[in-house]
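Lab meeting, item 3. Inverse folding demo.
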């Protein structure tokens, strides 16, 4: 990739995994566009990055809205002059027992988790297409999508979420084939049980149903992890750092599992 100052966009950068990714990429030398539905938390991420000597901009966006995503990425490029990496991280993960799935839940989760990936890819391609690889095999842009351990195997009570994450793997593979000749790689990362507000909400529901604490709820999930602990957001950010950097230039169409040893391929 170019030696010029690099620019990355991260959706869902206001908390959890997205915030950790934005912070890590800033440490890696990227200027970062922090996109989130919640502008206040996105601004907090920017302040964290700036306090560590990095440069970032916050943009409020609903990733289920195609025009908003394209406009948000445009605003980052207007600020920094280019785009090198697009991280389609934003997502929803409600528990959905099969009998309780409604059209509203189905559409909402798919619009964010799957639609947000499509629109993020389109927004990135608008700017990647302005550059051409100097020679066959040169990489001019990277797209990185959030799948999940739940996009590798079916998990109880996550029929909607899991379906979206399986879909992201399919999109990633197809886009990798479609875009390789244009010097663009497309990969995904598959976190397992990560200590995020979303995961804590799931664990708290399990804990409440059993009259236990949040930590007890999280520990129930950790029992399924070979390494014996749930992930921290920084663990996942390290994986994304690799996918965003030049060391992964010869990798495309892959979904890297970063789950502490839950799924083995």
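The presenter then showed the designed sequence:
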């Amino acid at each position: 990739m170019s030696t010029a100052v690099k620019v990355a966009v991260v959706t869902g950068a206001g908390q959890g995994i997205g915030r950790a990714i934005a912070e890590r990429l800033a440490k890696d030398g990227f200027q970062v566009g922090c996109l989130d539905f919640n502008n206040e938390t996105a601004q907090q991420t920017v302040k964290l990055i700036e306090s560590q000597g990095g440069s970032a901009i916050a943009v409020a966006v609903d990733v289920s809205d195609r025009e908003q995503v394209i406009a948000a990425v445009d605003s980052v490029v207007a600020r920094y002059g280019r785009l090198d990496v697009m991280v389609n991280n934003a997502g929803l993960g409600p528990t959905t027992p099969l009998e309780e799935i409604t059209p509203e839940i189905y559409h909402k989760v798919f619009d964010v988790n799957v639609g947000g990936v499509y629109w993020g890819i389109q927004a990135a391609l608008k700017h990647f297409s302005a550059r051409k690889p100097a020679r066959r095999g040169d990489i001019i842009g990277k797209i990185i999508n959030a799948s999940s351990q739940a996009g590798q195997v079916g998990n109880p009570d996550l029929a909607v979420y899991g379906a979206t994450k399986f879909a992201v793997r399919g999109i990633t593979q197809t886009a990798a084939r479609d875009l390789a000749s244009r010097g663009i790689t497309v990969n995904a990362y598959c976190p397992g049980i990560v200590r995020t507000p979303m995961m804590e909400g799931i664990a708290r529901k399990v804990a409440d149903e059993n009259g236990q604490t949040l930590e007890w709820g999280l520990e129930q999930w950790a029992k399924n992890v070979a390494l014996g602990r749930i992930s921290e957001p920084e663990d996942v950010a390290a994986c994304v750092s690799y996918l965003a950097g030049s060391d992964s230039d010869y990798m495309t169409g892959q979904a890297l599992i970063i789950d502490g040893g839950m799924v083995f391929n």
